[in-house]
Amino acid sequence: MQEHRLALGPSSCPQGALIVRSCCSRACAGVRARFFAARTAPFSRLSTRQRLVKSSPKPPSQPSNLPLRRLTSRIAELTRRRQLHQIFEEVKVAKKRHGKLNTIVMNAVMEACVHCGNVDAALGLFAEMAKPDGCGVDNITFATLLKGLGKAGRIDEAFQILESIERGTASGRPKLSSHLIYGLLNALLESGDMRRANGLLARYRVVLREEGHSIFLYNLLIKGYTNTDFPLGALAVRDEILRQGLKPDKLTYNTLILSCVKSRRMDVAMGLLAEMKEEGEKANNTDLFPDTVTYTTLLQGFGSMKDLLSVQEIVMEMKSSPKVVFDRVAYTAIVDAFLGCGSTKDALCIFGEILKLAGENAGLRPKPHLFLSMMREFAAEGDFHMVQGLRGRMWSDSVGFISPVAQGEADELLMEAAMNSHRVDIARQILSSILRRGKWSSWTSRGGMVALRLEALSGFTGSLFNPCILAEVSLDDPIEKYMTPFEEANPLRTGLILKKVAMRFYRDAAVPIVDDWGTCVGIVHREDCREIDAPLSAAMRAPPPCVTTSTSTGRVIELLIQKRYEMVVVVRSGSIFDAGHSAGSRPVGVFTRRQLLRSTAEEQVPPHPVCRIFGYS
């Protein structure tokens, strides 16, 4: 006799099954058919020969975590873009759609707050997660928050959190572990705060010793010394590593070499390189041999010291080493080192090799930074055609986004190359194009120095900036000497309706406004007068820009031109610091843009904000 079990509920429940015994398969099939017919019929019509036992209900299906996984990936993507506001908007929408989010998603939001430098938002998020109806906090939450507090320099708050964890009073009762301490320690070391980093190690040395002496901890300390004013202090950590019987790894040697490079001790760095090779051969460990990071760090040091022979030796050793991977970073470091040594010929050879290999491997295509580095050197040499060619190739052969700053620098370098090759007319055309497109940076930049040379050669009549000449005006004189008395400026009351004084704004671009006590409370500009029946107070810009009577005329002129002010109010010296000119200081005069232009030979507004004002006493 065979036994057949037809499940009506979970298989683990003995009551959720119907047992039918039969002597042959045909009888079994008949019973099975009658069973399914009885299952679809009403309970009142079930056969008395069949026993139906009510099965236990199935547990409700859990909602899928797929939307939350997608949300976490989306948060990580927005974190890389530093779009914290967008993250909070999408999390708000997700809460309305899915209800309470889990700890994994909220930890991703916490990491976004720390990455974007908004520690206050991270603290608010932590408080929300730690509420009784929140998703809860875990070790990752605390580690992320401690890292953020360390980066923001709020060390006292970070120590308070660590102490609450140690006492067991922290939310979620996390266990004090080395991972929590390492997050804060790493933030301290990145900022170069070795005093507090050593204090943190001394305070929680017992916790760190539970896991034994880890090389990871010493590597962090060495990295911390590279961010201080005494990078060679990392060598003392290396001695401690050897005393503890630990073996330095590749990261240890690379960070020590970086410390030597920052200290300009290349002899010590080369000694560490030799020791690195020796230890790798002695231990028969290929992971200890120098890699791309090792050699590029050495290239950075020799390039800054302009040691061309050492750079060439390092490059030859890199090409003969099987451990070195020549990627975009390695090639860029080689070119920068040659340019630092002033060897544009060698740099150009490596640059040509990059462009040749980039045709087969798109990952080797240089970034705009490399083109600009080459252009800087050739512009200084006055090689106009080379700079022009590199500028054109930057658009077609580079990879990544070419920022507006990089575009402006490329134009300025082309102008510098034209000036250094005595192509003054071409340099004037380039500068005119820069000004026409509004891509000017500043007079203090490298391009500004070139434009200053070009202005000196062009003179006042041929200047592209239309310089204004102030006759019989000294820029060192106090503004009190040239200002218009406040009564002569005919200020208007705040309560006046615009239509009663509308003709005033046809003559003056800006008019000072006073209250009933005669205090200047603002300025009304012509472009703000849009409602004819509105009072002047509705169109007023407050507070007005203010200077004291002792302020130099040159400083006031800079405010009018750089800040695009139409008027500057002058108050007595000392009163600006007492109660504020807009509330308690009585003005004594004004100086307007119109006054400035009346003093110049050409009465027109300068076409560009970097217009130069030359004063003669």
From TrEMBL:
Keywords: CBS domain, Repeat
Repeat in keyword set: yes
Segment forming the signal sequence: none
The UniProt record lists the keyword Membrane: no
Stretches assigned to the CBS domain: 540-610
Recorded superkingdom: Eukaryota
Residue segments, region Disordered: 48-67
Pfam families, sorted: CBS, PPR_2, PPR_3
PPR repeat ranges, renumbered to this chain: 138-168, 214-248, 249-283
TM region(s), chain numbering: none
UniProt xrefs under InterPro entries: At5g10690-like, CBS_dom, CBS_dom_sf, PPR_rpt, TPR-like_helical_dom_sf
PANTHER family per UniProt: OS09G0431600 PROTEIN
Name this polypeptide is given: CBS domain-containing protein
Species per Swiss-Prot/TrEMBL record: Spirodela intermedia
Classification of source organism: Eukaryota, Viridiplantae, Streptophyta, Embryophyta, Tracheophyta
